[in-house]
UniProtKB/TrEMBL annotation:
It comes from Alloscardovia venturai. Keywords: Amino-acid biosynthesis, Cytoplasm, Diaminopimelate biosynthesis, Lysine biosynthesis, NAD, NADP, Oxidoreductase. The active site is at residues 133, 137. Its EC number is 1.17.1.8. Catalyzes the conversion of 4-hydroxy-tetrahydrodipicolinate (HTPA) to tetrahydrodipicolinate. InterPro entries: DapB_C (IPR022663), DapB_N (IPR000846), DapB_N_CS (IPR022664), DHDPR_bac (IPR023940), NAD(P)-bd_dom_sf (IPR036291). Pathway: Amino-acid biosynthesis; L-lysine biosynthesis via DAP pathway; (S)-tetrahydrodipicolinate from L-aspartate: step 4/4. Belongs to the DapB family. This is 4-hydroxy-tetrahydrodipicolinate reductase. It catalyses: (S)-2,3,4,5-tetrahydrodipicolinate + NADP(+) + H2O = (2S,4S)-4-hydroxy-2,3,4,5-tetrahydrodipicolinate + NADPH + H(+); (S)-2,3,4,5-tetrahydrodipicolinate + NAD(+) + H2O = (2S,4S)-4-hydroxy-2,3,4,5-tetrahydrodipicolinate + NADH + H(+).
Length: 246
């Protein structure tokens, strides 16, 4: 049995993680912690994997504390950038047996959409991303959309493609955030959950790849997949695609 502790257990995502772990035949729930709880309760004696779903302002400190306790971590909190990732890599050098996994998105449909889009990006002159979420989401654009844009940009560079054409003269913020040359637009609307459209175009044709997560339960198969892989690859791993044989 995999002993799983959950940080952020009473949150929107954490509560679903608790339910998913309780329903998994190969896992048992160890500890449930929330803001203000002492992470020193977590140790290798009671926990194999911690699932961390907190808030961007707290996530890095939580992960660093758990690394110091030599416990494997699966992170679903968004708001990660290269500077924060590098901080985690440096912390792991003193704990070579610990694994930290960070997922921009746990929805299998979204991971597959990103994978397909990266394959297609080298064939299209233009590419943009629209991400749509509920208004309670604290970051914009989403970590998923940023990660998707980075994957598209990498594929385009590898194919030797030129910059995406854009003759806009006055922006005023309407063209969204630019991530490695890819425009990313964020919509926050009541009634939405998590949705992403990747749009690509050539003269006379368009390809749209869209992934929709209508309920947070859609993320749980990906969370359980990451838990089952925890510890098998020490160090920092980013992206669920690494566990999906893509």
């Amino acid at each position: 049995m995999i002993r799983v502790s959950v940080v952020g257990a009473q949150g929107r995502m954490g509560s679903h993680v608790v339910a998913a772990v309780n329903s998994a035949s190969d896992m048992e729930l160890a500890l449930t912690l929330d803001a203000g709880d002492d992470l020193n309760q977590v140790s290798r004696e009671n926990t194999d994997v911690v699932v961390e779903f907190s808030v961007p302002s707290a996530s890095l400190d939580n992960v660093l504390a758990l690394i110091r306790h030599d416990v494997n971590v699966v992170v679903g909190t968004t708001g990660w950038n290269e500077e924060k990732l590098e901080t985690v890599r440096q912390a792991l050098t003193s704990h070579p047996d610990v694994s930290v996994f960070i997922a921009p998105n746990f929805a299998l449909s979204t991971v597959l959409a990103e994978h397909f889009a990266a394959q297609a990006a080298r064939y299209f002159e233009s590419a943009e991303i629209i991400e749509m979420h509920h208004p309670d989401k604290v970051d914009a654009p989403s970590g998923t959309a940023i990660h998707t844009a980075q994957k598209l940009a990498t594929a385009r560079r590898a194919a030797g493609m030129p910059a995406i054409p854009d003759n806009t003269q006055t922006d005023a913020g309407s063209r969204g955030q630019v991530v490695e040359g890819i425009h990313v637009h964020a919509v926050r609307l009541r009634g939405l959950n998590a949705h992403e459209e990747i749009l690509m175009g050539n003269a006379g044709e368009q390809l749209i790849i869209r992934a929709d997560s209508f309920d947070r339960t859609s993320f749980m198969p990906g969370v359980l997949l990451a838990i089952r892989h925890a510890g098998k690859t020490p160090g920092l791993t980013v992206g669920l695609d690494t566990y999906m044989d893509l």
